[in-house]
Amino acid sequence: MKSKLLLTVLLLFTSFAFSQNLDVSGTVLDGSGLSLPGVNVKVKSSSQSTTTDFDGSFKLLGVPKGTIIVFSYIGFRTQEVAVSGTKITVKMSDDARSLDEVVVIGYGTQKKREVTGAVSVVDSKTLDILKPVKVEQALQGTVSGVNVTTQSGAPGAKLDIRIRGIATNGENGPQAIIDGYVGDLSLLNPNDIETITVLKDAQAAIYGTIGANGIILITTKMGKKNSKTKISLNSYSGFQEASRKLPMLDATEYALLLNESYANGGKALPYPNASGLGKGTDWQKEVLGTGVPILNTDLTISGGSEKITYSVSGSHLDQEGVVGQDKSGFLRNTARIALGADLSDKFKIKTNVIYTYFNRKTINENGLGSVLFNALNVPATIAPYDAKGDFTLVPSTTGLGTEIINPLAQIANTYNDYNFKKLNGNFGFDYKIFKGFVLSSSIGFNTANSEGKTFGKQISYGGKVFDVQRSSVTQTATNDNDYSFDIYGTYTAKIAENHNITATLGNTIFKTWGNSANATGFDVPNNSWEYADLSLTKGLPTALNTGGYVYDQRRLSYFGRAQYDYKGKYLFSAMIRRDSSTKFGPGNKVGYFPSFTAGWVVSDEGFFGESKTINFLKFRASYGTLGNDQIPNNGYLSLLTGEATYVFDGNLTSGKATGQIPNSDLKWEEAKKFDVGLDLRLFNDKVSVVADYFIDTRDDLLIPNIPVSGIIGIGAPGASAPTLNAGSVRNSGFEFAIDYKEKFSDSFSMSVGYNVTFIKNEVLEVNNGTGIIEQGGFGVGQPAASRMEAGKPIGYFYGYKTDGLFQNQAEVDAHPSQLALGANAAPGDIRYVDLNGDGVIDTKDKTNIGDPIPEATMGFNFQLNYKNIDFALYSFASVGNDMVRNYERVLSDANRLDYVLDRWTGAGTSTTVPRVTTGATANNVLSDYFVEDASYFRIQNIQLGYTLNPNVTQKAGITKLRLYAGVNNLYTFTKYKGFDPGSSAGPTNQDGVSQSPIGAGIDYGYYPVPRTYLLGLNINF
């Protein structure tokens, strides 16, 4: 009987115990009540987990009552819920700045609270709002310390990223690392990106030689485990227009001014009767298109099971240019597949492969004779077409020169095509060898092929320099490849509960190689683009018409990093990297680059107490040395790239000769980076503050093509000056960013962000014998406009200071002679300052008249969500950057901007704009008269969206349907007279890729960045 009773009691207890194991299901919602897919749902202190599917639902089997379930998702605050029943509904609160958010730092990750370097993150939400055509645009104004400038507003044009200033003469752009391998940021589809992490200080030292200019880490989107297949379609279409037109003289104003100019020069009036000319031709209106189309579509399919995740995506972008329309168009198609698989509890593999194709057409831009240069200089009195309907020829008179032509004819006779195909990606694995130790390895690769074709049509513009006597076609084929192999081990251990150690040790092999060939054929059949092919040309060349290159570069690197923290409040890390590069000769191939970072979470100290105002406070510091080898190959060798003529048996024979002058002492350029900063959170984490002071000193600058004596033969065809370690530059500054985020109710939230960066750039030394490096052009036949010199900003403008205008002959007579500048001064001419006081105005009086580097850059961002409506505004400002106005041809008959209507016409009539005359003056030499403050404030993006009620859309199988309208590059507030105060491009360096900062900021008529109006939709199935 007792045994039966005991058995009954045991059965009752067992039944009761089992009754406490529940099958729990539920739904996870975001702050606005919409379903949230991809949320990690984990039973605390257990391996049991799942992920919400695309309607935000989840299910867990056999969960004991009272168990804690943890809900976590990037961008939201982690929540814990105790199981009390079979149904759970969780509403997650936004917390994009959560301290537990994981940040990618290179060969590993850290929680944000533990990061000791200067690191900034841009997430996919920001990219969704900004809708950038290129990824780089998303960094402008969103990340402190980062400045993005355009080389042109043309579709597909390159953008330059500068992290904490300009430090070297060569490649100044940061290196992009895409999912662990070296990649090209400009070719990525923005919709494929999950996060962008910017490493700005010595934290980047783990990447050694490629980290001197900063590192941008890209994490692409992956599928989620235990989730149904999700289909996401994002599409927008819109139209573009020029964001700005310059105020030019109309036909009547031009004729009257030209009459005055000729009269002042003692010549007959060219327009005796100007009253009937009217407005004439608005050449900008003829050239700048309106309603220019742009179309973009992205499709992503993703999901996963318990062991496998996948993400497949494709995109199509088609953009025409506001200048030349389809003659300056850009088309880009991408396809991507990402797979991850857990082969066992210890072994995981992953792969990510991207295919990119783009086609780009270009017009002549940003230079003397460019399309916009002509549009600004052709007089409004000339009609676009003659009586026969042909393009009007611009007269080849002295007053209009030989390079100004009809810009519409120039566009029509421009023929070129460039196709680019690239396959890149990586394959990797993680193997957990034993507890705490993981071995990781990956192979990354890039292989690209491109073909270009340019057709020069036989044509006459009426005796201009653009006349083509023989038709020709030039074709180029290029193949570029690289691969990287990384293998590294990561050991993580906890000692005595309070000491946490992470150690990483690894090896990297990188190789890049490629070749290019180009050739030109003459006399294209039918003088037609349709027949423009080398195989069809039969004309004999008058000179060598083939070229190309071949290269092979390699790097071998070893790296190590140790990270330690005590109770999560005392943080320390040390890194070292050993790089070996084929860019340098024996004895200089190897470089060692150490760095250190430290942090102190003050708010975790007992003495700090429970502050109601300060929720988190961390001080951090870093110092390290990084290398740079981004120079042309084989600079330490003498190459047979020169051309020479030899005599054999009395006959002249073409041959090769020494080209580049070698420098066997070439060594690594070093970037020494120092940073101190703090991270602060206030008022229940509603306010976040990040501040940094930094000093970035670049020593042993690798300067290509250093000017040397012509005696040693650099003037011969194919010869070039050497590359030297010949300078030092320092950037110092302060960064400050503040964000405020408030959730007023479940249906109303707001966030505001502001960041500012102050930078001072100074050249410390130039060791090339003269102490000066000159580059950059102004006008025609004038000396170099920009300089690099110790004590000045790199690339500052070098010219004359002005002191108003001469108002009468007495002032001219009392002033030092200006004859050395080209002409005697007269009343109404510019008065130059005699800086050295020697009584003569000449080249000795030249000085610093401005520089293109801004003193400060800042971004202001605002987002508002009310029920199903969302609004966002992003803006950017640059303060203190100067530009040289160089798009006005100084020929007497060229058109002018309308500011010349305020010219000097007699004593007291003007103190700023000189007289007009056909006579000789010195008014056109480079002076601060042509240098303008190009500070600006730009509204970069405004977007308004509406998300349909999910209860309605889910009936159609749609989990989310959002419609939006937006404007990119809405308006730019500036006093600068040119098209775009945010553009800047220096001359191309010897490597044919990088651009020198010496000569940047000289405006030949930059292609304007378009204003774009968009309508789009986001659909999730």
TrEMBL record:
Residues 111-215 form the TonB-dependent receptor plug domain. It is a multi-pass membrane protein. The keyword Protease does not apply. The keyword Transferase does not apply. Its main location: membrane. Pfam families: CarbopepD_reg_2, Plug. This is SusC/RagA family protein. It comes from Flavobacterium frigidimaris.
